Amino acid sequence: MSPVSGPRPELAELLAAARVVSVPMRVRFRGILHREALLIPGPAGWGEFSPFPEYDDVEAAPWLAAALEAAGEGYPEPVRDSVPVNGTVPAVGVEQVEAVLARFGAVPAVKVKVAERGQTVAEDLARVAEVRRLLPDAGIRVDANGGWDVPTAVGALEALAEAGLEYAEQPVPDIAGLRAVRLELARRGIPVLVAADESVRKETDPLRVAREDAADLIVVKVAPLGGVRRALEIVAAAGLPAVVSSALDTSVGIRAGVALAASLPELPYACGLGTLSLMSGDVSGELMLPDGGALAVRDVPVSGELLERWAASPEVTQWWLDRLGRVYGQLAER
Ligand SMILES: O=C(O)CCC(=O)C1=CC=C[C@@H](O)[C@@H]1C(=O)O
Ligand SMILES: [Mg+2]
Known about the structure:
Elements: H1 11-17, E1 19-29, E2 32-42, E3 45-49, H2 57-72, E4 82-84, E5 86-89, H3 94-102, E6 109-113, H4 121-134, E7 139-143, H5 150-160, E8 167-169, H6 175-187, E9 194-196, H7 198-201, H8 208-211, E10 217-220, H9 222-225, H10 228-238, E11 242-244, H11 251-263, E12 294-296, H12 304-309, H13 314-333
Parallel strand pairs: 5-6, 6-7, 7-8, 8-9, 9-10, 10-11
Antiparallel strand pairs: 1-2, 2-3, 4-12
Helix pairs in contact: 2-13, 3-4, 5-6, 10-11
């Protein structure tokens, strides 16, 4: 296998060089039990292409642009040499919270998933209270992934605010709803900031949320936004504080997130880049796992042996190669 040649290599080169892995999760996260990723080697390093399976080819295109940036160009100059990282607690039962947190070590902040389908606000409150009990001084943010409607969000956040929240990520699905939640929280004097995630990364216009004053801050992820350079431009144009987060990537994708966090002029919040702790394996022997609540800015060597160990089945590999071919076609049209 030879590395692909430049920023926009030929499709045939990409298909020949790509490797596909499937890594089991330690805990179910957004319904996922195995994380699949296609990795591409290039002159600047490895790139990761791992849009979630349900994404169509148009939504997957920026993920490929990000992978090609990593492999072909590498990253801009960092302005810091390490980035603070938050722990991430999936929508697990209270009894599992301590074990999940233990995997992250000492972290300055924790993100807690809430509003999981089939669960109640009472379960969310209990999960957040348990995090607060275990880590009295940590920043806590919640992420509803758009799972509430406006009244439920306001009610839940009023109750959750007791634990002291840094912000609530995507409490409702749409931009108008985010704005409504933000206004209602302010009207009731509930001290919770609203962050937009899906309303940035899944919108055709990632700046709409900022223009419409619908959030206090934005969550930015390298792959869905089309690369580190594009994400930097979006943050600058949005003019809002930004939180860098992962897309549940292998160390290769986490490295890209670290590059973004390390290049932002301001980094007011810990980054959601500790998610390798939720996975049972990786493609690097030097995992991008937080140490002392931070990730160092460094390159990630990819191990041939680990690519073999986690190699996806021939069927899954073919599915990803077909997808790569189709999405490459989308990119060419952009
Ligand atoms: O931000 C974190 O702490 C971890 C990353 C994380 O929560 C996510 C990663 C990948 C997919 C998303 O559904 C999810 C998110 O909504 O932010
Ligand atoms: Mg989110």
